[in-house]
Design goal:
Length: about 375
């Protein structure tokens, strides 16, 4: 009875079922990962203009309302970290506190204003409202460690380097800092998840020997959280990778009578992975750290290589065992007495399959967690 139960694990159908269940598990795991928004891009570090700071600045600092309305992105590419934004930037302030010429010296952190219109100015008593149509080439801090499964956070940082927080700061009351994005804006295969805005100031230390020597810069930050709008890129990258390692795992299901096919299939898996690396490189962001795609590629390549070596040695052992049976017992060399018969070779093949499939599940789960 025990031999019958043990023999079931060597059955090709059982191995195939286990292999298919492993692939289904991976698909469910990927689907679960895609359902949850997860952006790891850094949020700009901004010191808030709190009540204490406002008390210090209340006699001289101008309070400026600011707003950003994004009309469109003529260029939108997270992989190359390249965005061209068409937007309206507006400011509202008291004309007795600060001059329009000072306010309009605004810029964007790590970005370039390609075009800026003359201000459209309206007045309501002492209040001035100035609107500018701008085209801005944006660059922001992005993290691609989970590429292509990542979500992203696009941070747009509005600054004015010609004044200090003691002269002007962006008002961050609930009804002061405005952020609007057109519903028809072009965002390629990404969808807007949420919008938020906050303001404050950043301090730049310009003397390494005197920490008290610093420059304060008023800043308003507008953040758009983007989630993936499709799975095309993920499928284009992952399907060939998983298909290649599947070829290597299928060699455990093949009969030793097809030993040439075993070696050919495992070698094909390695060749396919190496060849597809060039395609992945063109689709991936240029970063110096490992992404999820890189981790999968390296793990699958190493796993396929060890499967190839394992099958090569096991087939060699199998062929020697077959040759051994051609001799009469009295003619067998003493060294052949330690060789495994084909039945034991198949058991080793099964054990190797269980080890490989366990490694596959554990490492894939670890990478996707």
């Amino acid at each position: 009875m025990n031999n019958v139960r043990a023999g079931r694990w060597h059955n090709v159908k059982v191995k195939f079922l286990l292999l298919m269940l492993s692939m289904v598990y991976v698909m469910v795991l990927v689907g679960f990962t895609l359902r949850h928004f997860r952006a790891e891009d850094p949020v700009p570090n901004v010191a808030p203009v709190n009540l204490l700071v406002r008390t210090q600045f209340r006699d001289i600092a101008a309070q400026v309302r600011a707003g950003l309305c994004i009309k469109n992105f003529s260029k939108f590419d997270f992989v190359t970290n390249s965005f061209v934004m068409e937007a309206i930037v507006w400011f509202e302030f008291n004309k007795n506190e600060i001059a329009l010429e000072t306010v309009e010296k605004f810029s964007f952190e790590r970005s370039e204003i390609l075009s800026r219109s003359e201000p459209k100015v309206t007045m309501d008593g002492n209040k001035i409202n100035a609107k500018y149509n701008v085209i801005v080439s944006l660059h922001t801090n992005l993290t691609f460690k989970r590429f292509p499964l990542e979500d992203h956070r696009l941070s747009i940082e509005l600054i004015n380097e010609f004044v200090s927080p003691s002269e002007m700061y962006f008002d961050d009351d609930v009804d002061s800092l405005s952020f609007v994005i057109d519903e028809e804006v072009f965002t390629a295969d990404w969808e807007v998840e949420s919008l938020r805005a906050f303001s404050g100031y950043t301090a730049l230390h310009y003397d390494q020997y005197h920490e008290d020597k610093k420059i304060g810069i008023p800043k308003a930050v507008f953040i758009i959280d983007f989630k993936k709008g499709g799975i095309k890129k993920m499928l284009v990258i992952f399907v060939p990778l998983f298909a290649s390692v599947l070829l290597a795992l299928l060699t455990f299901l093949m009969s030793f009578n097809s030993y040439i096919s075993k070696i050919t299939l495992s070698a094909t898996a390695i060749t396919a992975l190496l060849g597809y690396r060039f395609v992945i490189e063109n689709m991936s962001p240029k970063v110096g750290y490992f992404t999820v795609t890189d981790k999968f590629f390296i793990f699958f390549l190493v796993l396929s290589f060890f499967i190839f070596i394992f099958q090569l040695l096991l087939i060699r052992q199998y062929m020697i065992s077959i040759d051994k049976d051609k001799f009469e017992p009295v003619d067998r060399p003493e060294a052949d007495a330690v060789l495994y018969p084909p039945r034991i070779t198949e058991r080793i093949n099964t054990y190797g399959f269980f080890v490989a499939i366990t490694l596959f599940i554990v490492v894939v789960t670890y990478i996707l967690k």
